[in-house]
Amino acid sequence: MATWRTYAPDYEVNLINLENYKEHLQEPEDTPRTVGPESFEFIARFSDWLRLALLAKHGGVWLDATLLLTAPLQYLVNESATFSGVHLEDRVESFFLASRAHEVLMQRWRDTLFHIAQMNESAYDQHLVALRGRGIEPLNGAMARCDWSLRSPLHGALHSALHFGARRINAFTRYTNFYLQVCNERYWMHYLRVMVAFYGVIEGSGYNTQELYSKWDLHIQDSMKNVNALAVLLGWNSSDIVHFISTSRSAKFDLYQVRGIKLRRAEWEQLDSLKVCEAGSVICRLQKLTGADIFDEVPAEVSEPPAFEL
Questions:
Q1: Residues 42, 173: one domain?
Q2: How many angstroms separate the CA atoms of 9 and 66, rounded?
Q3: Phi and psi dihedrals of 76, rounded to 5?
Q4: CB atoms within 10 A of CB 228
Q5: Can you give the pTM of this predicted structure?
Q6: 8 Å CB contact between 59 and 21
Q7: Which residue segment(s) compose the domain that 239 sits in?
Q8: CA–CA separation, 156 and 159 (whole Å)
Q9: Domain check: are 104 and 197 in the same one?
Q10: What is the pLDDT of residues 53-101, one digit of tens each?
Q11: Any coiled-coil ranges, and where (predicted)?
């Protein structure tokens, strides 16, 4: 949160958790007061719905707690747009969202997500088919190349086996560079219901993405060049990323250019175990900028850190 206060000094920072979220959703018109974590099968879906409900009511910016700002927030937010966000390939991410209060788009997105989050697997599959029947791509074309897996039972069985194996390989992602994101469109459509709700509302077809965003007055930036830049730079795993940002190897990494750094849980857990950062590293630079005092700064071990271009 120190980076938020440094790079968004004009914003009031509210840390939302399960103990205080109701304080921010008190008016009857927001939503039925009975809506809570128990209303959703998974806590992650409640979190997705909650961020939409808060933005629909108050406006402002939602940042996941795992996002470090490295430049003024104004570079990610377009205050004149209906909605600001970042996209990964063909779909919008949900860890950074910004909008004005009472936007119809956010209200529809909130309500649509709540509706489809209550569906069982069979009803949800029917919903996806209905979207496709209207010419809507549930993930705006992302993972559409995976349609081969649906061509026959054999393809489907092979795909399930690959996904099963990948989940086990990914358990070792902190020790290996071979992280796998299996090409399984159906899996991602079920997992990313918040994005399916979004593209259902704006009727994403998977084509002319920028034209679609312009139609709805959306400001969507490429997260591959911004907040996801570190993760995709060299195909690094969690250990590689933590080593890079905590050592002088990152001394020439342009923090301003990437706007922010989105860390996954594995990276946060590894950072929690660290006691020091090397002079010039991303972590030490951010610590100085924010006035924080979490890590002890030690001399750099790399005499000439590599230069990186995004």
A1: no
A2: 19
A3: -105, -20
A4: 20
A5: 0.84
A6: no
A7: 229-298
A8: 5
A9: yes
A10: 999 999 999 999 989 999 999 999 999 999 999 988 778 999 999 999 9
A11: none
Note whether 178 and 254 are same-domain residues: no
C-alpha closest to that of 71 among 268, 267, 272, 257? 257
Cβ count within 10 A of residue 273:
7
Find residue 69's DSSP bridge partners.
260
Q: Where are the alpha helices (DSSP H) in the chain?
A: 2-7, 43-58, 104-117, 121-133, 153-170, 185-191, 193-202, 209-215, 229-233, 238-246, 255-258, 265-272, 282-290
Write out pLDDT tens, residues 190-228.
888 999 999 999 999 888 788 889 999 999 998 878 887
Q: How far apart are CA 310 and CA 294, in angstroms?
A: 29
Q: How far apart are CA 137 and CA 131, in angstroms?
A: 7
Same domain, 25 and 165: no
Burial 232-260 (b: 16+ CB within 10 A, else e): ebeebbbbbbbebbbbbbbbebebeebbb
For the chain, the domain total comes to 3
Are 179 and 275 within one domain? Answer: no
Contact 261, 67 (CB under 8 A): yes
